[in-house]
Amino acid sequence: MDGEFKIVCFQKDHDRLQPGFYFSSLQKGAATFDLRFKKPNEGNFLAQAALHSIEHMLATALRAGAYGEHILYFGPMGCRTGFYLLTENMRAADAFDAVKTAIGEALRYEQVPGARRQECGNYLEHDLTGAKAELSAYLALLNALPAEALAHEEARMAEKEGA
Q: Which CATH number do you get for residue 99?
């Protein structure tokens, strides 16, 4: 396997990752943020139906929000510990603000957007209540992060932009 292309997220020691909000990489002008809801490899993963609903809810709320034109992609990690947010022309602080605002909006949803048979390839697997519980817990985690944590992500992003 020597000499093979290495995916950025596979180069991280997942046993050391903690739930939080992280700048992950800058590739081809797109910034990737790691929205880590759960600690990897601990057995406490996002339930599939809740994860699926969060994907629909935050993808909708992020694109409909103030930074919608800068959102390229929002989707789940296969390991079910969080989500990836891909943006363009956004600082880490703006992405952080967009995520928190989108979660607040998603928590007001009375149904999962795009969850009808015609709109979703697995429309029977949604859990609005479970999604809201996970989103509430993640928002509490984000609100408890010290300012230094976000400043660190801003600095990491600036370093990559300058490289």
A: 3.30.1360.80
Contact partners, residue 89, CB within 8 Å, separation at least 6: 70
pTM higher than 0.70, yes or no? Answer: yes
Query: Reading across the β-sheet that carries 20-27, which strands appear in turn?
Result: 20-27, 30-36, 82-88, 71-76
> How many structural domains compose the chain?
1
CA dist list (Å): 132 to 58, 107, 123: 11, 6, 18
Distance CA 45, CA 38 (A): 6
Residue at token pair 């600082």: 91
Domain residue limits at 150: 18-162
Dump pLDDT digits (tens) for 52-111.
Answer: 999 999 999 999 999 999 999 999 999 999 999 999 999 999 999 999 999 999 999 999
